[in-house]
Amino acid sequence: MPIRVLPPELVNQIAAGEVVERPASVVKELVENSLDAGARSIVVEIEGGGAELVRVTDDGKGIPFDEMRLALASHATSKVSTSEDLAAIATLGFRGEALASIASVSRFRMVSCPRGCDAGAEIAADSGALTGPRPAPARPGTMTEVRTLFYNVPARRKFLKSDSAETARITETLESIALAHPHVGFTLRSSGRKLLDLAATDEPARRTLDVLGNELEPELLEFEERFPELGGLVVRGFAGKPGIARASSRAIRIHLNGRPIMDRLVLHAVREAYRGLLDSARTPTVALILEMDPREVDVNVHPAKSEVRFRSQQGIHSAVRRAIERALRAANLVPHFLPDAFRAQGAGAQSERSGSALHAPLYGSGLAGRADFSAFAALATEAARTRTTEGTAATATAAPNPLGAEFAYIQLLDGFLVTEDADGIVIVDQHALHERAMFALFMERLSGGALESQRLLVPIILECGASEAEIVASIEPLLTRLGVVARAFGPRSVAVDAVPTLLHSRNADAGSFVLALLEKAVEHGSLLSLEASLHEIVDMMSCKAAVKAGDSLGDAEIRDLLRMRDRIERASACPHGRPTSIRIARGELERRFGRS
What we know:
The protein has 596 residues and is of the alpha+beta class. The chain is 32% helix and 24% strand. It has 20 helices and 24 strands. The strands form 5 sheets. Strands 5-4-3-6-2-1-7-8 form an 8-stranded mixed sheet. β19 (416-421) and β20 form a beta hairpin. The N and C termini lie far apart (86 Å). Residues 334-395 have low confidence and may be disordered.
């Protein structure tokens, strides 16, 4: 077949494959046009899950008669005119592709009347072939009607889901847009049945609750922080308490300058803010609104416009994570206790960067591979004397609780510590709790610079894939910060010349840690950013360094470990979100034994 220029209608149908994925895509593009036109009220009507009809009516500024045909032409737009405009896109639409693409795969009609005009105009298209414009009665604003979507590309139409599934996607799309535009009223009807009715409001909180559900109000934490150094960035929204986390990532809604996005970097930052509060399989409920100078972000990445690129990726990641973390901390969901003994040591204020109250070493100069928690003992409140009770199955010893009372503890099954507090019996997973403590220590050390490194007399040679060997050089800054010195050692091997001292002192398998780190870097293509990847990597380090489930601990070690529950942040869960302890409430015990 010879090379030839494709006809315009075929070009538009090809473009529609990227812009118009399903009926929800049509709704998104048309509603964004309405918002760019300054609409204050937008009504969406659908039939057959949007496959048979999508009609969007707005009260925006309208389109003049002599621009109607141009509005349906490819790459025709009023929103950008020079290459400089692309560097600071302040509108939702700008490509000039949407209407032409939609009209090429549907039976299309548009009626519009500019504000202040007595009459409007109508234009129609069938598979991209235009009819009109011609005069038509119309109210100020624009009505766009899309019928029998994909009727002329049946291969696309057969991939649509059921009517109910497509309707759900449209509802979700409209809700997502509405979250960032509370001053606009939105209505959605399906075959005459009203599915959404969101009144315009000047209160963003009111719109958020209207979308997410008023019953969630007690579970949502409002936050707003400003970062002038990042293009005037404003980070605001609502963070759900861990109890309303869901299994689907759709529970996180992210908007940038009024545009719904699903950016991988921002999504990672949101998840990092909840690290240790949620199981990794659960997704927090978050409505996140980002506002910043359009020159600091590139939205011209993908035709669907849901992907963006930030000039300061690491800065954005840090800002989002910190804003949500502070909201969670302020709600007392995260323990944040600074003991008097710590202040007496003159260690200074806690590091806000790490969010940890740990400034003393976790390990002393004891034997490598044994847990030495003496540094934490110095931070604990010594409010009770120790008593020892002999038993046949285990040794019970007293340990002070935060209130100063004496509670007994025992170690069972070489991995669980059983103690008590004012509310009942507490069972502690020693590995999970120590892993959380190690995580806090590593992050505290990293907040002050690179981890201390231990040079090895004999390098560790790791057999790996070619990709892992090749990526070592590109992530050298991250390795250096972690206290790792590694280099390619042939096409399929890596030599590790130095490892973090904290790992080495614990006799941890540093080789497997470095290999897992390289595999993670290859999996992501490249790590999102230093800060974005740091928490995930420190998770692995903490797991390697922590005491294991089968390790038998001495009395002093157990006491110091239990004190960590009240001395470190997020001690209720390990870095992966698994609980470090469970409580059997006193009332439950009394009920089980028939006392109540």
